[in-house]
Amino acid sequence: MKLEFGRAALISVYDKTGIEDFARQLRDWEWDILASGGTAKYLTEHGVPVHDVADLVGGGPILGHRVVTLSREIHAGLLARNSLEDQTDLQRLGIPRIGLVCVDLYPLETAITAEEATDESVRETTDIGGPALLRAAAKGRRIVICRPEQRERVLRWIDVGQPERERFLDQLVAEAELLCAEYALTSARYWSRHQINGVTSRRSANLKYGENPWQQPAELHATQTNDPLALPKFNQLCGSPLGYCNYTDLDRALNTLTLCAAALDKPGFDRQKIAIGVKHGNPCGAGYGSTASQATKRMLTGNLIAIFGGSVIVNYKLTLPRAYALFSHMMPEGSFRRLDLVVTPAITESALQFVSQRGCRVLVNDSLGDLSSTFGLDRDWRYRQVRGGLLLQPAPNLVLNLQDPEIELYGDRLSELESDLLLAWAIGSTSVSNTVCLVKNGQLIGNGCGQQDRVTACRHAVEKAIEAGHETTGAVAYSDSFFPFVDGPAVLAGAKVRAVLTCSGSVRDREVMRFFQANGITVYAVPHTIGRGFFGH
Question: For residue 183, what is the domain's CATH number?
């Protein structure tokens, strides 16, 4: 086989979508194409002349296709340096210097998660040659393409003369090494039965600083996920770049909104318009209703002081009238409230201009408009770094069903209040524990979160509701864990709360439930093992 020195491109891909166009363009630029097995056959069938790898290495696949591109000839062509000595060796041995590698990997995660997966099937579908080619090409400073979406970008770069070549190659090398690391981590996670774990990421944004100005540098990184609601997939339309605390507020607001949407998506209760306000990492306002106006006003008037300067997320499109209401409702005539961030599925041009003029940032993600009981919940694992290690747990995505037979009912079922109970649950279970929150008429009126004891959480919730001008009589309450004593229930009884959603599990459960019943309060008690709603530790 005689190939032009340094003008050989090796192509071996699992995803063959459009690969013939990529190879054809290289051929037009007088690159010689090397390919193996199925890729060579596919390109030939699509009219692209190729040299089969088998001709270079002196034979076809062996050991049941285990060994194809793992050969001295291929890796010499990838690892040879630009030295006279290496070039002389290649020419003496008749080995072409391979200048470009386009390789992707068999989707190991797909093999692992397949219903019929076995250790044998996972082992047989684990790609060895692909990672070896990518790492050799990376070390050899070749043009290395490991993902289909890179192909067009590389062609454009070659077409304009390969500007800033070393920097561009650095980026390609890093992507190839990252893909191999992710692949190896997937394999290690499987074979260790999840005793080995980890996370890889790519920087998505530089942040001015972290929680405090002296915590620098700070960055947002995107992890490997298909989640359409991953934070790096939100598009910012106006305003200064988001900071660390903005992203933590967005994450918290998104948790609350998706849980609300899932809980309220039930028969006979059309998908509701939902608005959530967040300040310093906790929901400070929340409302639902059949119209956007209802949801917006209920969210705002839950606590007009707390929402000032906060972040708002909604599951409906922002039009100019809706945006105007968001900034002006219950404000002095001619003035507008200060909001730091507004997040929506979509926004009209006139509304965007209005919000931008208020100095507020806007993020959009059209998936927010499709939230339901089956779409929107976080399904990924949650990692928290602690000194010297990581804590791992599933995302907080339990959706409570008040019809669950495991829920014990003390008093009469109050079907007309159950939607409010679910709203209270979604808010409380995404607020820093300990939390007790009050909801009335589709609106959060008091959130007592982050307390060390439950009675203080009750007091804070009631005090916040009263300070905000709300009448607590007839409200519902949620507690993210059981009541160890009757002191907390006494606070709620004094506020004339109508129903309580809490856990069982206290040694004083009977005493607590008798107290609630004696004060005419219906209790929905979820077993502590499935219903405790601790969050944010």
Answer: 3.40.50.1380
Q: How far apart are the first and last CA of the chain?
A: 64
Helix, strand counts (H, E) of the chain:
19, 21
> 294 with 325: CB under 8 angstroms?
no
On whether both 454 and 359 belong to a single domain, the answer is no
Comparing CA positions, the residue from 485, 484, 480 lying closest to residue 500 is 480
- Distance (Å, whole) CA 134 – CA 47: 26
**Do 439 and 504 lie in a common domain?**
yes
Question: What φ, ψ does residue 17 adopt, rounded to 5°?
Answer: -60, 115
Same domain, 360 and 317: yes
57: left (phi over 0), alpha (psi -120 to 50) or beta: alpha
Instruction: Say how far apart CA 494 and CA 391 lie, in whole Å.
Output: 40
Give all strands of the β-sheet with 408-410 in edge-to-edge order: 235-238, 361-364, 341-344, 311-314, 273-279, 282-289, 443-449, 435-440, 476-479, 499-504, 522-527, 408-410
Chain-centroid distance of CA 46 in Å reads 39
- Separation CA 146–CA 154 (nearest Å): 11
Q: Specify whether the CB–CB gap between 127 and 106 falls below 8 A.
A: yes
Mean pLDDT by 10 residues, the chain (537 residues): 66 93 95 89 93 75 64 85 85 88 92 91 89 95 95 96 95 96 94 91 93 93 92 95 94 95 84 92 93 95 92 97 96 93 97 96 96 92 90 90 92 94 95 95 95 96 96 97 95 97 93 95 93 86
